[in-house]
Specification:
The protein contains 18 helices and 18 strands. Helix 5 packs across helix 6, helix 5 packs across helix 7 and helix 7 crosses helix 8. It folds into three domains: 132 residues, no CATH class; 181 residues, no CATH class; 148 residues, Rossmann fold. The strands form three sheets. Strands 1, 2, 5, 6, 7, 8, 9, 10, 11, 12 and 13 form an eleven-stranded mixed beta sheet that branches. The protein has a five-stranded parallel beta sheet with strand order 15-14-16-17-18, with helices on both faces. The chain has a two-stranded antiparallel sheet with strand order 3-4. The N and C termini lie far apart (85 Å). Helix 11 links the parallel strand 11 and strand 12. It is 37% helix and 20% strand. The protein has 517 residues and is α/β, with parallel strands linked by helices. It is globular, with a radius of gyration of 26 Å.
C-alpha cells in the first residue's frame, strides 16, 4: 500500500473519530485559538488534536487526560520524548489529582512531581525547559525560624475560641462543644523579598511560609497551588515554586496585605483586611505602601480606601514578581486551611478583637455617609454565581412571601453591603462568602444559613454571627437515596455541588423563626 493511500486512510479514520468525539461548543469554548481562527472544531481535532498542545474533544476526555497526565509526565521523564504540553497538563492539574485524597493516586502523582522537580534542577538538555514549567526547588523558611534576613515582632499571644457544632433546624443530635487555639499574632520583616503568584514570598533562596493555612505540608491551599507544588514529604522541608526570573517592579519598603485568596470576599474581609488591626499598631509611616493583588473587585478596593485612607496600594499580577528591599508581613488573624485532611471544626476559630476592629471601622465610614436611605429589615442573600440552590427561584419565592427583599450582595458597593447588614433584623441565604458581612450586623440580628447536608459540617459562619451577638441556625438539604452512590464515589463533588432546599420545611421554619424574633 502506497504512502499516499496510508495517509489518506489515516485522515479518514481521524475525521470519523473526531465526528464521534468532538463536542463542538465545548471545544470552541475550551480552545479560543480555534474559535478565533474560524476553523471547524471537528476538522481541527482530526488534524491537530493529537499534536502539541494536547487537546480534549469533550469534557469526559478532558477528565480522562487529567487522570492520565501523571503517566504522560512520567513518560517524558523516563523516555526520550520531548512533550512540554504533557508536563504542563500534569502541573496544571496536579492539585485536582490528589486534593484531599491521600491514597494511591496521591502518592503516585507526588512521586512523579518529585521526579520532574529533580530533572528540572539537573544539568540535562531539557532541565531549563522543565524548570520553566515545573518550577525551582526551594527550602522552606517558616515564621519563627532563625534567619539573618528575617526578624519577628511578637504582638498578641495565642487565643482560645470556644463554640458548638452547627445548630440545625430539626436537628436530632446534641450540640458538641468545640475548642480551638488561634495562633499568636506577629509582624515579620523580610529583607530583599520577592512577592509572586498569589502573594507568595521568596527571600534569600527560600520559600517563606507565612500563612499557617497555606503551609506546604498541607495537601491544598487555594490560590497558592497554581504557583507552588507541594510534592515533598514534610520532613524534607522543600517546595517547588514557579518564581519568575526577573522582577517587574522594585520597592524599597512595603507592607504585605494580600494573600492566597485575596479576591474571595470571605478571605479578603476576615483574613487580609483585618490585618489592619496589627498595621494600626506597628507605627509604620503612612508613605509605606500596601501590597495587594491586582485582581480585586471594585468593592474591595473601595474597602481598602475606606480602611487605609492615607496609604498607597501596589497591585501585583499573578504572573509578575515584585522585589522589595524591606517587606513587613503582618500575621493573619485565623487558621483556616482549605486542606480536607484538617477536620472542619479545627479550622473554625475566629479572633473577636480583629472582627470588632473591622466592624468599628466600617461603622465609622457608615456614620460619615450623608442621607442614608432606609433599607429592608429582612434580607435574602441571592447567589447568582458559583454553586447554588438548584430550586433557587422557588426558595426565593418563599422568602418573598414572608416579607424578605431578595438582594445580590455582589452587585453592591462595599458601603452598601455594610449598610444592608447593619440595618437588617433577619439575614438568610445559601451559605457562602456573603455571610462574612454578618460582622456588620447589629447584635440581636437573626441569621439563617441554607446549605447542603453534606457540606454543613462547619460552624464557621455560625461562629462569625454569634461572636457579633447574632443568633444563627442552619436549614439543610434533604437526604436523597442516589446521594449514597455519589458520596461513596466522589465526596468532594457532593460536598461542593449544588443542592435543593425543601420549600415545605422552609416555609414551616420561617413561620416559627419570624414569630420567635
Amino acid at each position: 500500500m502506497s504512502a499516499v493511500l496510508i495517509s489518506s486512510l489515516r485522515a479518514r479514520v481521524s475525521l470519523f473519530l473526531a465526528r464521534k468525539l468532538v463536542d463542538a461548543e465545548y471545544y470552541l469554548n475550551r480552545y479560543p485559538d480555534v474559535r478565533a481562527a474560524g476553523v471547524d472544531p471537528v476538522r481541527h481535532f482530526a488534524e491537530c488534536g493529537y499534536a502539541v498542545p494536547i487537546r480534549a474533544a469533550n469534557p469526559s476526555m478532558e477528565r480522562a487526560i487529567i487522570r492520565l497526565s501523571p503517566f504522560l509526565a512520567l513518560a517524558v521523564v523516563l523516555l526520550p520524548i520531548r512533550r512540554d504540553d504533557w508536563v504542563q497538563c500534569f502541573v496544571a492539574h496536579y492539585q485536582e489529582l490528589w486534593c484531599g485524597d491521600l491514597g494511591l493516586e496521591f502518592r503516585f502523582a507526588r512521586w512523579v512531581a518529585r521526579l520532574l522537580a529533580a530533572r528540572a534542577t539537573g544539568s540535562g538538555p531539557d532541565a531549563a525547559s522543565l524548570e520553566r514549567i515545573v518550577g525551582t526547588t526551594l527550602p522552606i523558611a517558616r515564621i519563627g525560624d532563625e534567619h539573618p534576613w528575617l526578624t519577628l515582632r511578637k504582638m498578641d499571644p495565642p487565643e482560645t475560641h470556644r463554640f458548638s457544632s452547627p445548630r440545625v433546624w430539626e436537628g436530632r443530635g446534641a450540640l458538641v462543644a468545640r475548642e480551638v487555639t488561634l495562633p499568636p499574632l506577629w509582624c515579620a520583616t523580610v529583607q530583599n523579598a520577592s512577592v509572586f503568584g498569589a502573594m507568595q514570598v521568596a527571600a534569600s533562596g527560600h520559600f517563606v511560609s507565612y500563612e499557617p493555612a497555606a503551609d506546604p505540608s498541607l495537601s491544598f491551599a487555594a490560590g497558592q497551588f497554581r504557583h507552588v507544588i507541594a510534592c515533598y514529604a514534610p520532613q524534607d522541608n522543600k517546595i517547588v515554586a514557579r518564581l519568575p526570573d526577573a522582577a517587574t517592579t522594585r520597592l524599597d519598603e512595603a507592607i504585605l496585605l494580600g494573600g492566597r485568596c485575596s479576591n474571595n470576599h470571605f478571605h479578603f474581609l476576615i483574613e487580609y483586611l483585618s490585618r489592619g488591626y496589627l498595621i494600626d499598631r506597628l507605627d509604620i509611616p503612612d508613605e509605606i505602601p500596601l501590597v495587594i493583588s491586582d485582581n480585586l473587585f471594585p468593592s474591595q478596593m473601595e474597602a481598602l480606601r475606606l480602611f487605609f485612607p492615607s496609604r498607597k496600594f501596589v497591585g501585583v499580577s499573578s504572573q509578575q514578581r515584585l522585589d522589595i528591599g524591606r517587606l513587613h508581613i503582618p500575621s493573619v488573624m485565623t487558621y483556616l486551611p482549605d486542606a480536607l485532611e484538617v477536620t472542619d471544626w479545627k479550622k473554625e476559630g475566629l479572633r473577636l478583637a480583629s472582627l470588632e476592629w473591622l466592624r468599628s471601622r466600617a461603622y465609622e465610614a457608615l456614620s460619615s455617609e450623608d442621607d442614608v436611605p432606609s433599607r429592608p429589615s429582612r434580607v435574602f442573600l441571592a447567589r447568582r454565581r458559583g454553586r447554588n440552590i438548584v430550586n433557587a427561584d422557588e426558595v426565593e419565592a418563599v422568602f418573598a412571601r414572608h416579607g424578605f427583599s431578595i438582594v445580590d450582595p455582589s452587585a453592591l458597593s462595599f458601603i452598601e453591603q455594610v449598610r444592608l447588614f447593619a440595618s437588617a433584623t433577619h439575614v438568610a441565604g445559601p451559605l457562602g462568602a456573603a455571610f462574612s458581612n454578618t460582622i456588620f450586623c447589629r447584635p440581636g440580628t437573626s441569621v439563617l444559613g441554607l446549605g447542603s447536608r453534606y457540606a454543613v459540617t462547619s460552624s464557621l459562619f455560625q461562629n462569625l454571627a454569634e461572636l457579633m451577638g447574632c443568633n444563627c441556625i442552619h436549614l439543610l438539604s434533604d437526604k436523597r437515596k442516589r446521594d449514597f452512590i455519589r458520596l461513596s464515589a466522589n465526596k468532594i463533588s457532593l460536598r461542593q455541588g449544588s443542592y435543593a432546599i425543601n420549600t415545605r420545611r422552609l416555609d414551616g421554619l420561617l413561620k416559627t423563626w419570624l414569630k420567635a424574633a
